[in-house]
Design a protein that fits this description.
Layout: E1 2-7, H1 10-20, E2 27-32, E3 42-43, H2 51-60, E4 65-68, H3 71-75, H4 78-84, E5 89-90, H5 94-101, H6 103-112, E6 120-123, H7 126-136, E7 140-144, E8 153-156, H8 159-170, E9 182-186, E10 191-199, E11 204-206, E12 211-212, E13 215-217, E14 221-224, E15 229-232, H9 239-259, E16 266-275, E17 278-285, H10 292-296, H11 304-312, E18 327-335, E19 358-361, E20 364-366, E21 372-374, E22 378-386, H12 389-402, E23 408-409
Parallel strand pairs: 1-2, 1-4, 2-3, 4-5
Antiparallel strand pairs: 6-9, 7-8, 7-9, 10-11, 10-16, 12-15, 13-14, 15-18, 16-17, 18-22, 18-23, 19-22, 20-21
Helix pairs in contact: 5-6, 7-8
The chain binds adenosine monophosphate and glycine.
Glycine (GLY) binds near residues 212, 227, 285, 289 and 292.
Length: about 425
């Protein structure tokens, strides 16, 4: 088999590594990939949203299965385009991807079907938005309706912060689209869990729950990032909470998709907040999480390609998932300054000196003289497995000291409180 992976982050490197292990796979291609992905796959420098070029690449190379990492090509209909060209692709259609690409759609979908989520309202002008913000009272969450690379949500604590974010959205158009709208909802507090399933709409398998660390600094301080680390399994979903998530969140969502005639084949990611009052769905994502994938896939014993093919063919219920007992911890090495401005192009040293960890490349590239250099905010993800979280953590933090690049920054407290 030949598999094509779309994307360029740590998530996609983890996918490529796992896919390469499948005995059925002869070759992996990637678009656009990064320096690490390039060691295991042939990379093509095409745009993730240039569908005619991607279809041509897949057809010319007789690709058997295409796997999509990021949300943007899914939201723009890569699955629809591939399907209509007779090409197999793992990932939902544009219609199904609205669960992530429109917050308004997702919130109204949850409300229609009684899926637990915070109360909300919708506004399409700055003055209406501000009125509703003031009515709800502070703190309150303001969410840009469309895709915003993880930057579209802000919890604001006063009028000044609300006005500044609403002006970003409605006047400075920082997320681009004309005629924007926002969701305004109650700010929730609690522990967040990423609960991912793989589904063909008719049946599903939960992937091991993971915890993602979104803030840049230790103790969850500072601005949100794409994710600075993760661990799995997240031990939080037990007993009654686990049952509630299964019945009231997952089953309800899948039934709702069926009822609305939305076929869903791929990974569906529930961003959950465990509040004092119960579980609430913050968001849906229609893809694997990054960096959650870097702790989920190393623990998966199954052949990932077999799982994905069964999903695409609608025969997922024939598969049983098996997980390693070991715990997984991932720490992201980032460029100083991220998630704000940062410098790139620094040589990365020590990549061959680390042992017993998975090294997932994110923002890296091979320079003209052949050295691997930094090329993004999140540079590398290191994942360790261990019989305990503390063993996994020790492996990762040892490796994090061995790898060197100018401006290297990482959080010190990933999975810090776990045994
Ligand atoms: P979303 O894209 O909706 O998940 O939002 C991204 C992040 O914003 C979440 O992972 C939370 O950390 C935060 N967030 C979203 N909604 C809320 C909310 N209602 N209250 C507090 N934080 C939120
Ligand atoms: N780690 C959060 C996400 O992938 O959206």
């Amino acid at each position: 088999m030949k598999v094509l992976v779309i994307g360029s982050g740590g998530r996609e490197h983890a996918l490529v590594q796992k896919i390469s292990k499948s005995p059925a796979v002869r070759e992996v291609l990637a678009v656009p990939g990064n320096a690490g992905i390039g060691q295991q796959a042939t990379c093509f420098n095409l745009k993730e949203t240039d569908f005619p070029a991607l279809v041509r690449l897949a057809a010319d190379n007789r690709i058997d299965l295409t796997v999509v990492g990021p949300e943007v090509p899914l939201a723009r209909g890569i699955a629809d385009t591939f399907q209509s060209s007779g090409l197999k692709l793992f990932g939902p259609t544009a219609r199904a991807a609205r669960l992530e690409s429109s917050k308004i759609f997702a919130k109204e979908f949850m409300k229609r079907h009684g899926i637990p989520t915070a109360d909300f309202s919708v506004a399409d002008t700055i003055s209406r938005a501000l009125q509703q913000v003031e009515k709800k009272g502070y703190p309150v969450a303001i969410k840009y309706d469309g895709l915003a690379a993880g930057k579209g949500v802000r919890v604001v604590w006063n009028r000044k912060e609300a006005v500044s974010f609403l002006e970003d959205i409605f006047e400075r158009n920082i997320f681009g689209s004309p005629g924007p709208a926002v969701v305004i909802e109650e700010a929730l507090t609690g522990e967040e869990v990423s609960y991912l399933i793989v589904t063909d709409t008719l049946s599903y398998h939960p992937l091991a729950p993971a915890r993602d660390y979104k803030r840049i600094f230790d103790l969850d301080q500072g601005p949100n990032t794409g994710g600075m680390g993760a661990y799995s399994p997240a031990v939080l979903l037990e007993g009654e909470t686990a049952r509630f998530v299964q019945e009231e969140v997952v089953h309800r969502t899948l039934k709702a998709l069926l009822r609305e005639g939305i076929e869903y084949r791929g990974v569906l990611y529930f961003g959950l907040m465990l509040t004092k009052k119960g579980v609430s769905v913050l968001e849906y994502n229609v893809r694997f999480g990054d960096p959650e994938t870097q702790v989920i896939l190393p623990r998966l014993e199954n052949d990932l390609v077999e799982l994905m093919e069964a999903t695409v063919a609608g025969r997922l219920k024939e598969i049983d998932l098996r997980w390693k007992q070991e715990k997984a911890v991932c720490v992201i090495l980032a460029s100083k300054g991220y998630p704000g401005p940062y410098q790139t192009g620094y040589a990365i040293r020590g990549l061959n000196k680390v042992e017993d960890v998975f090294v997932y490349h994110a923002g890296t590239k091979t320079s003209e003289n052949g050295t691997i250099v930094t090329a993004g905010g999140r540079v590398l993800g290191l994942t360790g497995l261990g019989i305990s979280f503390s063993e996994a953590r020790e492996k990762v933090y040892r490796a994090a000291e061995v790898i060197e690049f100018s401006g290297k920054y990482f959080r010190q407290d990933i999975a810090g409180n776990l045994k």
